[in-house]
Queue: 2 jobs
Job 1
Amino acid sequence: MSLMQAGRLEGDWYENVTRDKAFRRTESTFRNWVTPDGSPGPTGEGGFRAEPGRYHLYVSLACPWAHRTLIVRALEGLEEVISVDVVNPYMGPEGWNFERVPGATGDTVNGARFLHEIYTRAEPDFSGIVTVPVLWDRQQGTIVNNESSEIIRMLDTAFDAFARHPVDLRPAPLRAEIDALNAVIYDDVNNGVYKAGFARDQRAYEAAFDALFARLDELDARLATRRFLLGGEPTEADWRLFPTLLRFDPVYVGHFKCNLRRIADYPHLSGYLRDLYQWPGIADTVNLEHIKIHYFTSHPALNPSGIVPKGPALDLDSPPGRAHLS
């Protein structure tokens, strides 16, 4: 991903955040919210009212954070309400680009060549990291938000009047537990694979590695007696975990050296992964070709040859065997 200072490209984000040998993720910059009436959300300013056709998502099918937004968009049935453009899975020296390759759309809204042009269109002197997902407001011609955890909550709450099948992914009685699970899963698993993969010191790598597999062991044990993390229906916590589990065996095991166990080796996590993959509408959000192309070609420090592995063979369509759990 590209790092910008005062509207100018300054190099590779990964190189900038790993100089102390440990990976540290930079916080997102645009933090406004879409709300049903346009009032301010938990952060940012107001003026972003939920309306069909007004908002647009820029995503990568490879990125687990962007994948979250496509999942919630599909679960809510917002495909006709919020449009989407998909970047090229290869992320080069200028960051994400809109080259039209198989599965990528180009920029159909602003006609940009690179995602960083969208950032400077919203803020000409932008300083920060150019990331996906981006929620764009066609009406104001600006970025509303580029923090995936906040975008999925907007999609879950602000657009109910336009959703084909609105769901509540964070029901009030479970919010405290969902938030607590999200925090530890983010730190040890979602971001944990990156902390292992981009560590430049053995001690930093092993600390992330150990925390990752301790958490996966704990989650596998939790799922022995319940179908999803908090019971019989998937919540926000499940859909935040799913993109990482999906990428684990084809990418993180080898590319990020997270090789103690595969998800396929976990008796409960493996069935849980298939259960979520087979949930209505979810398989359509998955593009394993983009996932593998991105990781294995966009990180030359980790894979100098740029060779994309043909495997592994994933068994995502076999019966999960978890319907009896509640």
Job 2
Amino acid sequence: MTGQSMIIARSLEQAAGFKPCALTIGNFDGVHRAHRRLLRATVEAASSAGLRPAVLMFDPHPSCVVAPERAPRLLSSIEERCELIRGEGIECVLVQPFTTELAKLTPEEFATRFLRDGLGVKCVIVGENFRFGCKQAGDTQTLQNLGAQLGFEVRLIEIVRWRGRRVSSGEVRTLVAAGEVGIAGRLLARPYAISGEIVRGHGIGAKQTVPTLNLRTDAQVIPARGVYVTRTSDLGSARQWNSITNIGYRPTFGNDDALTIETFLLDPLEGETPERIRLEFLRRVRDERKFESPEALKAQILRDVGRAKAYFRRVKQQTR
């Protein structure tokens, strides 16, 4: 499925070709396990009824319009979400601009304008906690009642849990911000990752400790300060390296105003230094702390490298 093309519309007019469709609705930030269950249920519903599997999501996040002070930091861009959604077999995505006008629509107006008339929906798949319409006045019972009136079926998906923990974008944000990247990866069903361009650092690492790649990123959710086992990918090629990454303010060399994300590659860097990389966070190693000297820091980095190499050896043995 990952090789298929997908139509991305930015208005109802552009989405006219989606009809008739099976549709799921949401923000899909992070495209975690619960989102994937919705997406797969949508693909199954579409396949069994000869419909197109489709997604309706909003940009910007509705909270940015109705309650900016509560707007969340996002785990993924629209482009990243679309790529992950495509991988689940969805054929059509409407990225609907969210405006104050849209926020004022009643549940009835939303269902009529978007679901029946705009998208020709025959089946809607949502989570059992789904809310919609002005001030979230509509719930799943409202949607089912409207479906009966407007001619579409409604299917509900139970809340998804992993080891008793509810899977949600908010929970993933909390875990990543706390440095719990291993558990966050379980909820996402893949490692949490950020990307960006490589920039010149202070040059201290190459001279006094170990050389690193310094990442500048637009990611809104950054793991807590500390050292992590990571996997680094060159976004300009197929190159990939096992690595270890420090996020922090370089306290050993004096407090720095700017947060730095410094990655040491465990494998040789052959060829040109990458211009843009993607960092996957696999496991937290330790907190960032101040050392009495660059030599002490270098010794700790080498111990961290040993722990990271041991981690990758275990992973390799488990996958044999």
